[in-house]
């Protein structure tokens, strides 16, 4: 019998991860969709940009052919009591994006941000809660959140993803080095190129890794859950996959000819 999880995996494999890519690029269109967008430039970026996010529903960050950091903001703030405000400011290499809503707000205080970063810039994203998506990076990309889904698409530099609570999903990954950590939440990663070293650690949640057909050194460990490995293995091969979960199924499979 084909389980719902197996059926979903087959669908994703058939699409080459395209469903994840669509999710990443579409973002969170229903959040503050009635608000008028505001656009602001923050000047050229240094080699490394840190984006700090607080109390934001959705952040979408893209590497783009632009000369400066460009930010588009949608903010819906209204209250019967208290105050609402949205913050965007750059201090040296740190871009802060946030909402500032008093604890007694009766109304709405939501924001969505889209950031376009000049190509060639390494990016670190630090978030508390809310969805974060990133795409188009050939440079190093680090994303850390306390709570909220992380979505990535078409990335090729060194990759580090970490969340305490929330799904981690990626498609079109070309990174040779990837380190992914989830305390709670499902992990799904589709690689367009075989990684040299992939390490995935999840305390609770299913982990699915899909890689191009190649020989891999595979190490899987789980405290509770089934392990399925469907890739060619070579203990001396140039590609390494390590997956560890405390509780949750592990699936490592390959596509291609």
Keywords:
single chain, 257 residues, mainly beta
What does this molecule look like?
With 257 residues, this protein is mainly beta. It has 2 domains: 1-30 and 140-257; 32-129, no CATH class. It is built from 2 helices and 21 strands. The strands form 2 sheets. It has an 11-stranded mixed sheet, with helices on one face. Strands 5-6-2-8-10-12-14-16-20-18 form a 10-stranded mixed sheet, with no helix packed on it. Strand 5 (84-91) and strand 6 form a beta hairpin. The longest helix has 12 residues, at 4-15. The two termini are 27 Å apart. The model is unreliable at 19-31 (pLDDT under 50). Pfam families: DUF4097. Residues 122-253 form the DUF4097 domain. Keywords: Signal. This is DUF4098 family protein.
Uncertain segments of ≥5 residues (pLDDT<50)?
A: 19-31
User: Averaged pLDDT, please?
Assistant: 87
Strand content: over 45%
Alpha-beta classification: mainly beta
The arrangement of helices and strands along the chain is HHEEEEEEEEEEEEEEEEEEEEE
**What is the global morphology?**
globular
Strands of the widest sheet, in order across it, are 1-4-7-3-9-11-13-15-17-21-19
Summed up, the domain count is: 2
Q: Describe the sheet with the most strands.
A: 11 strands, mixed
Total number of strands: 21
Termini separation: 27 Å
Q: Figure out the total of helices.
A: 2
Rg over CA atoms, rounded to whole Å, is: 19 Å
Helix content: under 10%
Keywords: Signal
Signal peptide: 1-29
InterPro entries: Toastrack_DUF4097
Domain DUF4097: 122-253
């Amino acid at each position: 019998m084909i389980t719902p999880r197996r059926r979903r995996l087959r669908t994703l494999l058939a699409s080459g991860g395209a469903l994840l890519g669509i999710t990443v690029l579409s973002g969170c269109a229903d959040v503050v969709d009635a608000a008028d967008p505001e656009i602001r430039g923050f000047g050229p970026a240094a080699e490394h940009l840190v984006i700090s996010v607080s109390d934001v529903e959705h952040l979408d960050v893209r590497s783009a052919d632009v000369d400066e950091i460009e930010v588009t903001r949608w903010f819906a703030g209204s209250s019967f009591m208290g105050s609402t405000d949205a913050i965007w400011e750059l201090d040296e290499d740190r871009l802060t994006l946030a909402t500032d809503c008093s604890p007694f707000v009766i109304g709405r205080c939501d924001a969505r941000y889209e950031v376009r970063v000049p190509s060639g810039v390494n990016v670190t994203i630090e978030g508390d809660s809310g969805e974060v998506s990133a795409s188009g990076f050939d440079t190093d990309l680090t994303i850390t959140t306390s709570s909220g889904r992380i979505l990535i698409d078409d990335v090729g530099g060194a990759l580090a993803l970490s969340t305490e609570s929330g799904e981690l999903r990626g498609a079109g990954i070309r990174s040779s080095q990837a380190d992914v950590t989830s305390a709670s939440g499902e992990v799904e990663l589709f690689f367009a190129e075989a990684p040299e070293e992939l390490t995935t650690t999840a305390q609770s949640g299913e982990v699915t890794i899909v890689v191009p057909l190649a020989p891999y050194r595979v190490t899987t460990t789980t405290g509770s859950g089934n392990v399925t490995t469907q890739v060619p293995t070579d203990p001396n091969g140039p590609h390494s996959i390590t997956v560890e979960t405390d509780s949750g199924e592990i699936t490592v499979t390959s596509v291609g000819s």
